[in-house]
Specification:
24% of the residues lie in helices and 25% in strands. By secondary structure, it is of the alpha+beta class. Strand 14 and strand 15 form a beta hairpin. Helix 1 runs antiparallel to helix 11 and helix 2 packs across helix 6. The termini are far apart.
């Protein structure tokens, strides 16, 4: 266990004493109860970063998890990319509301009319209409992002720009390419020079070969966790949206910079802008978020505001939450099992005690059944990489196609009504929820019917 002083630019009067021994025991207990092989936890409170570890990095080798172990952060990488973009905006190098075309003249989408409407602000807030699950290996060269952005030109949009939120990894790769063009560096090098080095994040990296210098967690799959068949399935071009590797302590130090109003890396006004609501979300359950800011998912915990992000890779799940008014940030990195249940139980207790936060109850069906006519939702919904089929009895099939075809077998579930448009799909997998996956049917402002799963909008296809 490590406690480290954290430099802040503001003082928090309600700093809490952190009881290492008690929280270590609780982490051990909950990790074992939820069959998570290994986990690391970092907590910023009272101006100090406290680090804990529990379990094993790899069930096959028996290597123990330690506070200096590194895990894959999955989509928490988007926060790093967003921070780089906001540095460029703060300096006047980038206009968040100008077309992406102003920086990337060769940027294009499958809809020529939509292309000039896509701005960095819309990319940051997931309102660009660009899709999520487009996979393309741009190779190992420094041109991998440029190649990815070119390859994505023909990919269909989830919805027109600016009318709705649809979670987009493609959009964050476009942001990564903007970073490269405006800095003259690769995204990896820009991240090191402009963010990691100034913050002293010496155990944060972007490339697999860099992780070999450290104790690295192996992902595990299944309810009875077994080591995944591969450590990582993502190409280098996935970096801006999904490839940052770090310790929990380094993740919480990054969040601490945002909690502290920028800490010299960003101006306070820029930090505030990132935490300002850009768009409300119809799916308030997948990551328990109410809205999106510029890079951050935003929370309203019974009047207490917060920000954070979740991430997933092959058998690794990461959770980051911050309560700026209390000077608190918490990062949990895991390598399989019932990771989301561990997060829900542990964060409810930690944030409740340290920040006065009451987190929402886990998502699931209501106590009283809701009567719904499933036939109005029956049909096929499609977005890049995914086909979703719903029949008139409320049976759902979620199938990966195209470049995502081998990512996972089809997921099947019966929908249980929560409201007349919100449904719970049982046992859909840890990436969404260990128990119930939220499925939301919505009509976009342009009249398009869609199904939201994993915060991604899939338009309904003509019959």
């Amino acid at each position: 266990m490590i406690a480290q002083r954290f430099d802040r630019t503001q003082h928090f009067d309600n700093a809490q004493q952190f009881d290492h021994a008690r929280w270590q025991a609780r982490l051990d207990e909950l990790r074992a109860a939820h069959r998570v092989p290994g986990a690391t936890l970092a907590v910023l409170t009272g101006g100090q970063v406290h680090e804990l570890a529990s379990g094993l990095l790899h069930l096959g080798t028996g290597v123990e998890a330690t506070t200096d172990s590194v895990f894959q952060l999955g989509s928490i990488a988007k926060v790093y990319t967003a921070t780089l973009i906001m540095q460029l905006a703060e300096s006047g190098t980038l206009d968040l509301d100008a077309p992406v075309l102003d920086v990337l003249p060769d940027f294009a989408t499958a809809d020529p009319a939509a292309t000039p409407l896509i701005t960095p602000r819309r990319l940051l807030s997931h309102t660009s209409g660009l899709t999520c699950d487009f996979t393309y290996d741009g190779g190992r060269g420094d041109d991998c992002l440029a190649r990815y952005v070119r390859a994505a030109r023909g990919v269909a949009l989830d919805c027109p720009p600016g009318i709705a939120v649809s979670y987009s990894s493609v959009g964050y790769n476009v942001l990564g390419r903007i970073v490269e063009v405006l800095t003259g560096q690769t995204w990896d090098d820009a991240l090191k020079d402009r963010l990691l080095t100034p913050l002293g994040l010496t155990r944060t990296m972007t490339l697999p070969e860099e992780a070999l210098r450290f104790r690295a967690a192996m992902g595990h799959l299944g309810a009875d966790p077994e080591p995944a068949p591969a450590w990582d399935l993502m190409p280098r071009s996935a970096g801006p949206y999904g490839r940052v590797i770090a310790t929990a302590g380094d993740v919480v130090r990054l969040a601490g910079m945002h909690v502290a109003g920028g800490a010299g890396v960003l101006a306070p006004a820029t930090v505030a802008a990132m935490q300002r609501r850009e768009v409300e979300v119809p799916d308030k359950w997948t990551v328990s978020a109410d809205a999106w800011g510029l890079g951050w998912t935003l929370y309203d915990w019974s009047g207490v505001p917060g920000f954070g992000h979740d991430g997933a890779s092959i058998g690794q799940y990461a959770y980051l939450r911050a309560v700026p008014g209390a000077g608190v940030a918490v990062a949990l990195l895991t390598n399989g099992g019932g990771a989301r249940r561990l997060y829900a139980d542990l964060f409810a207790e930690l944030l409740g005690e340290l920040a006065g936060v009451r987190m929402p109850e886990p998502f699931g069906p209501p106590v009283e059944p809701v009567a719904v006519d499933f036939s109005r939702f029956a049909g096929k919904y499609r977005r890049e990489g995914v086909d979703i089929t719903v029949d008139a009895d409320g049976h759902l099939v979620y199938e990966f196609v195209g470049g995502m075809k081998n990512f996972s077998p089809p997921l099947e579930a019966d929908l249980v009504p929560v409201t007349d448009t919100v449904f719970a799909a049982e046992a859909a997998g840890a990436s969404f929820s260990d128990d119930w996956m939220p499925v939301i049917f919505a009509t976009l402002p342009d009249g398009t019917e869609c199904a939201y799963i994993g915060m991604r909008a899939a338009p309904k296809q003509p019959a």
